[in-house]
Structure formats: structure tokens, C-alpha cells
């Protein structure tokens, strides 16, 4: 309550409280855009107006927290990538656990990178590069660059702990991510392949781990 100067009366400050905090609103928009991408897959072509409608907010409200379609794409991809790379933050108690952690990470990375949402964004980044040139950069920085940095750092930590003997963590990380997902994603984007079965994915991950971490590299 606030007293009006010069009178003994009081008045209530008027104002409509915000329905969402900025963080909650971003969560809502990311969820709405992700749902559209999952539904439309490689044919996805959403607009900010469509995202606003799905999130049940006004387009003006969207732009109070998200400046552009490219920024929204960056949020979507970064959140997916961070949920996967969180595996690399878990404790590794001994050298025998190194392969298991790497296998679990690569399994989740392929599932993320080759899922409908990621394939839709990949296709969109190529198709709309003339209209939205920053989508490709947002996609690459939020997914490829982030994953590469996190896996490189993890391999370097394992080397420092003497759990691994590895000369070039960055190159090893690049090989692993490329072999487990990059070519598969391109084929899915072109409609030339179908998602792998769990058995096929397990075989692929096991082969990649054997290639990048041969027996001689594990302490």
C-alpha cells in the first residue's frame, strides 16, 4: 500500500504481475519449438509466431527474452548438448571405467545428434542459410563445438590421471564424434537411411571406442 501525499488516504499500486520469469519463459519457448521440430522432423520450417502460438504467449512476449530465431535454435541445441555432456562430469573411479563412460557418452551423443530434432535443425540450417545465415553458426557452436570441447577436456583429464595414454585429446575427440554421428546425421537428413536399432547403435559405439581407445591406450 502507498499513501498519497497530502491526504490521509491510501492507494494500492496497480500493475499486472508477470506470468513467467524470463528463465521460465525461455523454458516454455524452447519446449514449444522443440515439440514443433520433433513433429515436423526434416520438413520443419517454424516461425517465431508459430512458437508463440504453441507456447500460448504473444509474439511480443517472445521477443522480450529471445532476440531471433537463430538465438532460439541456439538455446534448443545447447540444452540438448549439455544434457549429454553432463555424463562426462561424473566421477571416473579407475582406468577400467574409462571405456564404459565413453561408451555411454557416445551412445547418448548419437541419440541426440541423430534424433528428429537435431536432424530438423541441421536441414533448416542448410535450407535457410540465405534468410537466416546465423542458424548454421548457432547450431555448430551449440552442438559440435560444445561437444568437442567437453570430450577433449575429459580425455585430457583421463590422461592427466594416468587412466589413459593419449597423445592428442582434441583429435581423438573429433574422430570419435565424427564416426559415431556426423555421417549418420547427413544420411538421415538426406532421407537415405533410417534410425539405427539399439543393437546397431551398440555395435557402432563399441567399434568407435575400440578404434579411438585401443587396448594399449588404457592404463
Automatic annotation (TrEMBL):
The keyword tRNA processing does not apply. It comes from Pseudoduganella plicata. Residues 47-66 bind DNA. Keywords: DNA-binding, Transcription, Transcription regulation. PANTHER family: HTH-TYPE TRANSCRIPTIONAL REGULATOR BETI, HTH-TYPE TRANSCRIPTIONAL REGULATOR RUTR. PROSITE patterns: HTH_TETR_2 (PS50977). Residues 23-84 form the HTH tetR-type domain. It comes from the Bacteria. This is TetR/AcrR family transcriptional regulator. Pfam families: TetR_C_7. The keyword DNA-binding applies.
Amino acid at each position: 500500500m502507498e499513501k498519497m501525499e497530502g491526504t490521509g488516504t491510501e492507494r494500492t499500486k496497480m500493475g499486472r504481475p508477470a506470468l513467467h520469469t524470463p528463465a521460465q519463459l525461455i523454458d516454455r519457448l524452447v519446449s514449444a519449438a522443440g515439440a514443433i521440430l520433433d513433429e515436423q522432423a526434416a520438413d520443419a520450417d517454424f516461425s517465431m509466431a508459430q512458437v508463440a502460438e504453441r507456447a500460448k504467449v504473444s509474439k511480443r512476449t517472445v521477443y522480450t527474452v529471445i532476440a531471433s530465431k537463430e538465438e532460439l535454435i541456439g538455446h534448443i541445441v545447447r540444452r540438448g548438448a549439455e544434457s549429454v555432456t553432463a555424463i562426462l562430469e561424473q566421477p571416473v573411479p579407475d582406468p577400467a571405467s574409462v571405456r564404459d563412460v565413453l561408451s555411454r557418452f557416445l551412445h547418448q551423443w548419437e541419440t541426440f545428434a541423430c534424433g528428429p530434432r537435431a536432424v530438423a535443425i541441421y536441414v533448416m540450417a542448410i535450407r535457410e542459410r540465405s534468410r537466416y545465415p546465423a542458424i548454421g553458426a548457432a547450431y555448430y557452436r551449440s552442438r559440435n563445438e560444445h561437444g568437442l570441447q567437453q570430450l577433449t577436456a575429459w580425455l585430457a583429464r583421463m590422461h592427466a590421471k594416468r587412466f589413459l595414454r593419449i597423445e592428442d585429446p582434441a583429435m581423438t575427440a573429433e574422430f570419435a564424434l565424427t564416426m559415431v554421428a556426423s555421417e549418420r546425421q547427413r544420411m538421415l537428413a538426406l532421407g537415405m537411411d533410417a534410425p539405427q536399432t539399439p543393437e546397431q547403435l551398440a555395435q557402432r559405439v563399441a567399434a568407435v571406442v575400440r578404434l579411438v581407445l585401443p587396448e594399449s591406450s588404457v592404463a
